[in-house]
Amino acid sequence: MKKNKSFLSRLFSSNIFLLILSFILSFTSWVVVSFVSDTNIKTITIEKVPVSIDLPESDYDYTFFLDKYYGVSLDDSGNPLVDVVVKGNAIVVGSLKPENIDITGKINIPNNAALSPQEYTVSLNYEKSGVLTNYEVQSISTSTLSVYVDQPLEKEFDIVNSCTFKNTDNTKYANLTLSQSKVKIKGPESLINEISSVEVHGEITEEGTVKKGLVYKDSEGRELTDAYFTPSVENVSVTAKLLPIATVNLKVEYKNKPSDVKTQANISPSAVRIAGEQAELDKYKNGLTLTTLDYAELKNENFEQDFTITPPDNCKIIADENEKSAPTKAKVSLDLGPYSENTVSKKITYDADGYTYTFTPGDISIQLYGDETQIKGITSSDIKLTVDIPDDFKSKLQELKSGESVSRQGVKLKPELSSDYSECWIYGSYTVDQVTVTKK
Predict the structure, then answer these.
(1) What pLDDT, in 10s, does the model give residues 371-411?
(2) pLDDT value at position 428?
(3) Of 258, 253, 254, 252, which Cα lies nearest the Cα of 416?
(4) How would you label 155-165 residue by residue, b for 16+ Cβ within 10 Å and e otherwise?
(5) Distance between CA 408 and CA 395 in Å, rounded?
(6) Closest of 307, 263, 260, 261 to residue 288, by C-alpha
(7) Is the dihedral of CA 283, 284, 289, 295 positive or negative?
(8) 433, burial (CB in 10 Å: exposed 0-12, middle 13-18, buried 19+)
(9) Residues 365, 347: contact at Cβ < 8 Å?
């Protein structure tokens, strides 16, 4: 005991110990007073407190969509975030975190009706959470929210370019292109289904690229609010450029055309105006091919058909000064009426060592058109007939034993007319009903 008293006596006689003890007691007293004192009051804002919104039970898979113009952001889970102003002891309020305040949203349903796809107002309420409760909630950045309740839907739409480009140079075409042609939009099912078109609007006065927002319209052309829409992009880039213009002739290519048939197709319109980069336009100085006419598909009659005009890559067909709109189709006429017709019977044969080929039927009737004088002189010997035996059928033949047979239906035939008859052609395609092959 004496030793202990001696130690305590020495300890309390130490100025350093007394200084430390005095500091600890002072700090403790300050802390205690700070917690209980009303004079150390502070008002702060706790930012980004999540709001929990529970939907009433429903037979449908409803969710809520927040009005994006309400000034409220969302967290990664889709919960609205609000700011809460609190007042209280500086130490207490300084220790508060968003998780210390529970904000809940209650959907106000008129007359306790069943939940249905429509816009609702959500009232916000708070509850203190945790051990720090000695403070007052002064205000929430918004006391209500606007939400739309419905099943979610995502649809893809073409973007319609409704911008205009003012151009006074008649030798150039004012071309407008969009950075993308389609957009995906998420939102309430009933509102998404109201969208008929997605457009970009505006007048552009000079070359360059500008950003334009999306405009949503219904089937009657009325603009829709996009408060509850979430597009894959909020805006698109519109590029304006003045392109050179060239007048390009339309032409027709031919297949299986006899060398001495001089009849040419008439095309209406015979030429179109095309706007594009000069290097691309230069490729079509000799004309733009509209279609290819195969004489194997043409009879001795007046052929007439409309064909779609396909512009070159990165080019555009434009209207003439006297036209309201650019032509999209051209009519092709080819008068083969003056030519005569004839049919020639040809026996089907095929030679292969070690096998016998039998065809059903054994001959075919070949349809011919051409010059009246030439066509009368054509005989079966003037036609070479090739039998197109498929490779997989030839493989089966190798498996045959002597005397065995195998058959195949629908084998193609390729007739070819002698070049001596340079103003006649073979019409149609030909197949034989069946070929039977027997190994010798």
Answers:
(1) 999 999 999 999 999 999 998 998 888 889 999 999 999 99
(2) 96
(3) 258
(4) eebebebebeb
(5) 12
(6) 307
(7) negative
(8) exposed
(9) no
Q: What percent of the chain has pLDDT over 70?
A: 92
Cα of first residue to Cα of last residue in the chain, in angstroms, is: 130
* Residue 65 phi, psi dihedral angles, 5° rounding: -120, 130
Beta-strand relationship, 118-128 and 144-150: antiparallel
Sign of the alpha-carbon torsion through 113, 116, 121, 127: positive
Q: State whether residue 91 is helix, strand or coil.
A: helix
Taking only Cα atoms into account, the Rg of the chain, rounded to an integer number of angstroms, comes to 43
Q: How far apart are CA 119 and CA 67, in angstroms?
A: 9
Q: What pLDDT digit, counting tens, does each position of 356-372 carry?
A: 999 999 999 999 999 99
Is pTM beyond 0.70 here? no
Q: Hey, which residues does 225 pair with through a beta bridge?
A: none
Neighbours of 108 (CB within 10 A): 10
Contact between residue 42 and residue 122 where contact means Cβ atoms under 8 Å apart: no
DSSP for residue 422: T
Q: What is the mean pLDDT of residues 332-338?
A: 96
The 3-state DSSP class for residue 36 equals helix
d(CA 349, CA 357): 7
Angstrom distance (rounded) from CA 352 to CA 162: 67
Cα–Cα distance, 109 to 128 (Å, whole number): 26
Helix axes 15-36, 2-12, angle to 10 degrees: 70
DSSP single-letter state for residue 225: P
Question: pLDDT tens-digit profile of 52-81?
Answer: 998 888 888 999 999 988 888 888 888 899
CA–CA dist 193, 291 (Å, integer): 40
Question: What is the per-residue burial (b if ≥16 Cβ within 10 Å, else e) of 219-238?
Answer: eeeeebebbbbebeeeebeb
